[in-house]
Specification:
This protein is mainly alpha-helical. The chain is elongated, with a radius of gyration of 21 Å. Strands 1-5-4 form a three-stranded antiparallel sheet. The protein has a two-stranded antiparallel sheet with strand order 2-3. Strands 6-7 form a two-stranded antiparallel ribbon. It folds into two domains: 134 residues, no CATH class; 155 residues, no CATH class. A hairpin with a 3-residue loop joins strand 4 and strand 5. The chain contains 16 helices and nine strands.
Length: 335
């Protein structure tokens, strides 16, 4: 199966064992230079933009940047010393140049814990000298760059939230239900985490398979009036029109298969929802599938078998969700 460059990019951002937020900062840095049409990035310029992105992030909203609660990252220490006046901006950038890239630059272009390498590299490295950005990233248009930048921001936020759970000096700013559902009950358009969640659906509406537009809703696949909860394993993104057409109807079984696959996409990452889904549905994939199917059967008992199969032209066999890199990986296939 053939994947495009943006599929591989999203694989990098959405997957991998992220013990810190370096990858998100580097992603935003690389997109900055791509948008500026600068393919030969001097190490000092790389260090300056990377420092500015990191400094802006953690100065405005201090949150933990790694999973280890006993120490700060190199970047946190550099930014802290600069903010306290211990070093100048030039000295801070020099420290980033010397200490900030040893792990993230060589390891960025891999996906997952097995270090699967992407098809076409986004850059070549002359460590300490420059990065040579390739056509695979220089070919991203402005709209795509803006979308990918927002995805990196959203992923960064979710990592910070996950790290804060294990660090007593930080509190998770918002309960997940408050982030995604107004008052934990009513549907509403999502916050800036929309792009990240779209990554797990392949950037398409759950119900029609077409690309998302600006009218994005959260929907309970199994109607909330029956299941009476807002658990994350049952929430998807949909066009407003598709959401209204589906309403509180019982969906066809092909949408349950798709929901199972979407949940496995989340389970294949370090998304903070991973533990929640495992708690609610089960540790093993087969257990999660069986649990969700059991919920579906229970809803059938309440609503009857009058299925809503999707919009008029929807065909599960042509749904791009199943052809995306992240879905293929999490269904056990080799890209």
């Amino acid at each position: 199966m053939k994947f495009n460059d943006s599929d591989y990019w999203r694989g990098i951002i959405l997957f991998g064992l992220n013990a810190a937020t370096y990858k998100m900062a580097l992603a935003k840095t690389l997109l900055h230079f791509s948008k500026a049409d600068n393919n030969k990035v001097d190490w000092s310029d790389l260090s300056e933009v990377y420092f500015d992105i990191f400094s802006d992030r953690i100065t405005k909203n201090p949150m933990p940047q790694q999973s280890n609660p006993s120490r700060q990252t190199v970047m946190e220490r550099i930014v802290s010393e600069f903010n306290l006046g211990g070093i100048t901006r030039a000295e801070a950038i020099e420290r980033v140049s010397e200490k900030g890239f040893h792990d993230v630059v060589p390891r960025f272009q891999t996906i997952g814990s097995n270090k699967f390498k992407i098809g076409q590299p986004f850059y070549d490295i002359q460590f300490g000298k420059y990065l040579d950005l390739k056509d695979s990233i220089m070919g991203f248009d402005k709209d795509l760059i803006d979308s990918l930048d927002a995805e990196a921001d959203a992923r960064w936020s979710l990592l910070e939230g996950a790290f804060s759970i294990n660090q007593s000096q930080f509190e998770l700013a918002n309960d997940i239900r408050d982030i995604y559902l107004k008052d934990g009950y009513q549907r509403k358009n999502l916050t800036n985490n929309i792009p990240f969640l779209m990554g797990y659906q392949g950037n398409v509406c759950f119900y029609c398979g077409e690309e998302m537009n600006n009218d994005i809703h959260v929907d309970h696949v199994l109607p909330r009036q029956v299941v009476n909860h807002d658990e994350v394993w049952n929430l998807v993104l949909a066009h407003g029109d598709c959401n209204m057409m589906k309403s509180d109807k019982l969906v066809g079984p092909h949408f349950i298969d798709k929901l199972i696959a979407r949940n496995e996409n989340i389970m294949g990452s370090n998304h903070p929802w991973k533990a929640k889904i495992a708690t609610e549905l089960g540790i093993a994939a087969i257990k999660r599938s069986n649990s969700l199917t059991r919920h579906y059967d229970n809803v059938k008992t309440v609503l009857g078998k009058n299925y809503w199969g999707g919009t008029e032209f929807y065909n599960p066999a042509n749904d791009p969700f199943y052809k995306r890199l992240i879905t293929v990986i999490n269904n056990g296939a080799q890209p």
